[in-house]
Specification:
Largest sheet: 8 strands, antiparallel
Radius of gyration: 27 Å
Number of strands: 12
Order of helices and strands: HEHEEEEEEEEHEEHHEH
Structural class: alpha+beta
Length: 275
């Protein structure tokens, strides 16, 4: 049975997409050494920052039953709260929460670093329970050395008596937080919790649930089937290594069949010309 040369090219290209799709369904079986430098993650962290801001605003509005918080002579409009800087490491996110408050008819800028703990308290494997990600979240107020001058502190919003709080005890979801003075506890929406865990895992080299995952796996499939193998994405489980090996061998076979078909076609054309 004769096959046209382009059949093998189509099979070659189709194999790249096929294996890329398979790799995309295998979370935590490939280690990505350069993913933390990808610009695509910038969009993820911007969305996370905006989502955290909205969650905190809503949490405070519900706690105080008002859009404005007044403590003594100071008042702060909750809608002015915003996050300027955020750093996610492990299962916590440290961020600078700033806002504008009014004291004696003067508008004053104030900001303070807070820490948000998320997930079930363990690593990648134990964040999933019964098919659902579990989140017990705590706003941890860091040492006062990080804050700006001002009578009213941002952390005061989370440590008043009408806010549920704890010191690493039951109210904080079982977390041990010796460095914080008081902690306010709130639950994260599932969508935001998933983004936080996905981004944290991406920074650790496992971006299976981050933006651009299929594109990364397509790249891996392409460099594997062409036997280039740059090594920035590597399989770390027996199953992943087996599939990578199969694709590399399959790619060599397809190229061999293509070259053989092409050579036969050239030979036939030259033979016809001599007749």
């Amino acid at each position: 049975m004769k096959f046209r040369s382009y059949y093998f090219i189509l099979a070659y290209i189709g194999s790249v997409f096929l294996f890329a799709g398979v790799y995309s369904t295998m979370p935590y079986e490939f280690y990505h050494s350069t993913v933390k430098y990808e610009k695509v993650l910038n969009n993820d962290i911007v969305n996370i920052r905006n989502n955290i801001t909205e969650v905190l605003k809503e949490h405070l509005k519900q706690s105080y039953q008002s859009d404005t918080v007044t403590i003594g002579k100071n008042s702060l409009k909750i809608n002015t709260l915003r996050i300027w800087d955020i750093e996610i490491k492990g299962r916590n996110a440290k961020f600078l929460l700033v806002g504008d408050y009014f004291s004696s008819n003067l508008q004053i800028f104030n900001g303070e670093y807070l820490t948000l703990y998320f997930g079930s308290g363990g690593g990648r494997g134990d964040t999933m329970q019964n098919g659902q990600l579990q989140y017990v979240t705590m706003i941890c107020c860091n040492d006062t050395s990080d804050r700006f001058e001002g009578d009213m502190k941002i952390r005061d919003l989370f440590t008043l008596k009408n806010i549920k709080r704890g010191k690493g005890g039951p109210d904080s979801g079982g977390y041990n937080c010796p460095e914080c003075i008081d902690c306010g506890t709130t639950m994260l929406p599932d969508s935001l919790g998933q983004k936080l865990v996905a981004y944290s895992n991406a920074l650790e080299g496992f971006p299976s649930y981050s933006s651009g995952n299929f594109e990364r796996m397509f790249y891996l499939s392409a460099v594997t089937i062409t036997t280039v193998g740059y090594g920035d994405i590597v399989p770390i489980t027996p199953k992943a290594r087996l599939l990578i090996s199969i694709e590399a061998i399959w790619g060599i076979i397809l190229i061999g069949l293509f070259l053989n078909s092409l050579a036969n076609r050239v030979f036939r054309n030259k033979k016809d010309e001599t007749l």
